[in-house]
Amino acid sequence: MEKKQYQLGDIVQMKKPHPCGTNEMEIIRMGMDIRIKCVGCKHSVLVPRTKFESKLKKVLRSNPDKEEESS
């Protein structure tokens, strides 16, 4: 199984929904840990990278700013 590609600013779908009801999260910080922000209620959570990768279902929308820079 290939690793999912994600980057700063992407909107990702998690396997389990946030308590507010949405399972869409925005990646706002990357490093050893990844900070994600709920799209629904704007609550942010710091998650270890290994746990984030196991809970990530798919990347919904890539950050358009990053795509323009690479073109």
Which descriptors apply to this entry?
DUF951, about 70 residues, 5 strands, DUF951 domain-containing protein
Describe the structure.
With 71 residues, the chain is α+β, with helices and mostly antiparallel strands. It has one domain (11-62). The chain is 20% helix and 38% strand. The protein has a five-stranded antiparallel sheet with strand order 4-3-2-1-5. Strand 2 (24-29) and strand 3 form a beta hairpin. The protein is globular. The protein starts with 10 loop residues before the first strand and ends with a helix. The model has no long low-confidence stretch (mean pLDDT 86).
Helix % is 10-25%
Summarize the main sheet. Answer: 5 strands, antiparallel
Spatial gap, N to C terminus: 28 Å
- Describe the global form: globular
Radius of gyration: 12 Å
Fraction of residues in β-strands: 35-45%
Q: Calculate the mean pLDDT score and round it.
A: 86
Number of domains: 1
Order of helices and strands: EEEEHEH
Low-pLDDT runs of 5+ residues are none
Number of strands: 5
Q: Looking across the biggest beta sheet, what order are the strands in?
A: 4-3-2-1-5
Count of DSSP-assigned helices: 2
Q: Specify the structural class.
A: alpha+beta
Note the quaternary state here: single chain
Set down the secondary structure blueprint.
Elements: E1 11-14, E2 24-29, E3 33-38, E4 44-48, H1 49-55, E5 56-61, H2 64-70
Antiparallel strand pairs: 1-2, 1-5, 2-3, 3-4
Task: Write a concise synopsis of the structure shown.
The protein is an alpha+beta fold.
